[in-house]
Write a structure and sequence with these properties.
The chain has helices at 15-20, 29-42. It has 52 residues and is mainly α.
Length: 52
């Protein structure tokens, strides 16, 4: 049995739908990925040496 109310439907978001509603993304995927990798490396979550 589900805890969700009868007739409930989850909301689906997509970047295209957000853009059609006027939302503007401040950063592109390239910047987001670079910042994520940089931050993960700074926190010691990534090795700075390539695998053998």
């Amino acid at each position: 049995l589900s805890d969700e109310p009868e007739g409930w439907t989850p909301t689906t978001l997509s970047s295209e739908r957000l853009k059609k509603l006027g939302f503007q993304f401040k950063h592109g995927m390239k910047k987001i990925l670079k910042d994520t990798v940089d931050c993960s490396a700074e926190l010691g979550l990534l090795s700075s040496t390539p695998p053998n």
